[in-house]
Amino acid sequence: MNCPICELAGLEENRQQCPQCESDLRPFFLLQALDEQERIEKEQLKQQAKKREQAALRRGRTPILIAWGASFLALAVLLYFIWPKKAVAPVAKQEESSKEEMLALQKQLKQAKTESDSLRQALAEQPKSVYVYTVKAGDSPIRLARFFYGQDEEYKRLLEANELALDAMLKVGQKLTIPAL
């Protein structure tokens, strides 16, 4: 340490008086100790401020993370509850139309069964040798053979009895002779 008055260098820290100028050095040592203590306190305050700043940054990030999480959750809820309903709605309509189509087909099947029963009854009432049939939409020699004889292969018998070519197309309203087996 140096003497603050005469600037004599190399004085010991615990010296109370300067050997050259005989100044009392105790107040200067006290001031120096206070300065050192103030410096230490400032350093501690800086460290505490730095810690508070870091904690504030961490706290500042927390609301951001919470906001991101809430946004993600809201998006998930939106996708789960709203989006699937729009995607499923056409399927429900499709199922509804499929049910209607199925009911219509069931009605047609009942009508066809009724017609088939009446034709079989009329066939049973006809003499066993010949039956006259009026062609309807969708009829073909194979279908008629299947219906009247129970076998697709008997379509040749229908073609021969009605003098039709193998590739002949049946016309709605055309009269066909159905020979008995």
From TrEMBL:
UniProt cross-references to CDD domains, sorted A to Z: LysM
Transmembrane portions of the chain: 64-83
Keywords, sorted A to Z: Coiled coil, Membrane, Transmembrane, Transmembrane helix
Superkingdom as given in the UniProt entry: Bacteria
Family annotation (SMART domains): LysM (SM00257)
Chain ranges of the LysM domain: 131-178
SUPFAM superfamilies associated with the record: LysM domain
Classification via Pfam families: LysM
InterPro entries linked: LysM, LysM_dom_sf
Coiled-coil residue spans: 95-122
Protein name in the entry: Peptidoglycan-binding lysin domain protein
